[in-house]
Amino acid sequence: MSLDQLIENCKKDDTKAQSELYKLFSSKLFAVCLKYSRNYAEAEDNLQDTFITVFKKIEQYKGKGSFEGWLKRITVNTALQRYRKEKVFDIINENTIEDVELEVDEDSLSIDYLLQIIQELPDRYRLVFNLYVLDGYSHKDIASMLDINIGTSKSNLARARQILKQTIEHYKTKQHSQSQ
């Protein structure tokens, strides 16, 4: 069955088609959920909430643009909705934090370790870091999505980079001392 036919069947509340759509996209969308969640269990909750929203709103998908892109936007918005309710963003004086260059040596750090330290960032820093660095949103878009000002977005990104840089430097120092 083609993707278009699957979508049409989902619009008719066909549970078999919904199950197929879930199987087709759940692993990709779960990876997105992991980026925006504090942990694995929260990512699972976000994925579940994403598909509930997808099946409620699938009528709104008119075939314009990528269906996968549409799904990803719903996934990101679902995860962000949790944080909007919790008010995790503080207003920070944007002049207090200097932007830091973050260089990652892929040979000495595993993807799993990088994902872990990103997930350990405080919510406001992790969300802005992921939106800006991993998904390519502008500070203007991030400010709109998270209901914060542009300066807060920039300072949260700078702080996330500072924390990651310190964590990576500490890890490398520990690795270096263990190898001697």
From TrEMBL:
It holds the Pfam family Sigma70_r2. The keyword Transcription regulation applies. Residues 112-162 form the RNA polymerase sigma factor 70 region 4 type domain. InterPro entries: RNA_pol_sigma-70-like, RNA_pol_sigma-70_dom, RNA_pol_sigma70_r2, RNA_pol_sigma70_r4_t2, RNA_pol_sigma_r2, RNA_pol_sigma_r3/r4-like, WH-like_DNA-bd_sf. Keywords: Sigma factor, Transcription, Transcription regulation. The keyword Transcription regulation applies. Residues 21-87 form the RNA polymerase sigma-70 region domain. Belongs to the sigma-70 factor family. ECF subfamily. This is RNA polymerase sigma factor. It comes from Flaviramulus multivorans. The lineage of its organism: Bacteria, Pseudomonadati, Bacteroidota, Flavobacteriia, Flavobacteriales.
